[in-house]
Structures are given as C-alpha cells and as structure tokens.
Amino acid sequence: MSCDKKKITLTVNGEERTITADPQSPLLDAIRDDMRESAVQLRCGQGRCGGCVVLLDGKRVLACDIAIARADKRSVTII
Ligand code: FES
C-alpha cells in the first residue's frame, strides 16, 4: 500500500479547504485532524455506529469508512 501524500481540495460547510494527506486515509481523519472540525464524532471507527455521518454532495456517508480521495473536489456538509 502506498502512503504517498496528495493534495486534496474539498468544500466543507461551504468553505474550500486544501490539505495534503494520504488519499487512502479516512475522511474522518482529515476532518478532525487536518481541519480541526470536532463536531464529527469518532466512536467505533469501523462504520457501525453512525457517529461520523456527514453529507458528501448531499448524500449520507460514514466519514470513518470512506477514503479522503473520494471527497476530492466535492462538497462535505457536517451535520
Ligand atoms: S465512527 Fe462509528 S460509523 Fe464512523
């Protein structure tokens, strides 16, 4: 598995953000660690509890269970 970092640009609650991250790392890590958005909860970290739900282009996703690369150039809404 590659751990090369890549620039990822996404819009979070209407604000465009660019971070450098491992594209396979969870979206949740980027939201909490790189963007300092603590409203999204890390609970199980395994896609089972729903504590990390965000909207990705308006669709509900589990931020702990989706790679940051899938959010590149897309809109994330923290609910
Ligand atoms: S932290 Fe439980 S589903 Fe993401």
SSE map:
Blueprint: E1 6-12, E2 15-21, H1 27-34, E3 53-56, E4 59-62, E5 75-78
Parallel strand pairs: 1-5
Antiparallel strand pairs: 1-2, 3-4, 3-5
Bound molecules: FE2/S2 (inorganic) cluster.
FE2/S2 (inorganic) cluster binds at residues 42-45, 47-52, 62, 64.
Mind explaining what this structure looks like?
By secondary structure, the protein is mainly beta. It has a single domain, classed as Ubiquitin-like (UB roll) (Roll). It has one helix spanning 27-34; strands at 6-12, 15-21, 53-56, 59-62, 75-78. It has a five-stranded mixed sheet, with helices on one face. The longest helix is centred in the middle third of the chain and has 8 residues, at 27-34. It is globular, with a radius of gyration of 11 Å. The structure holds FE2/S2 (inorganic) cluster. The site of FE2/S2 (inorganic) cluster has 12 residues, from loops. FE2/S2 (inorganic) cluster is lined by residues 42-45, 47-52, 62, 64.
Keywords:
single chain; 79 residues; mainly beta; Ubiquitin-like (UB roll); five-stranded mixed β-sheet; 1 helix; globular; binds FE2/S2 (inorganic) cluster
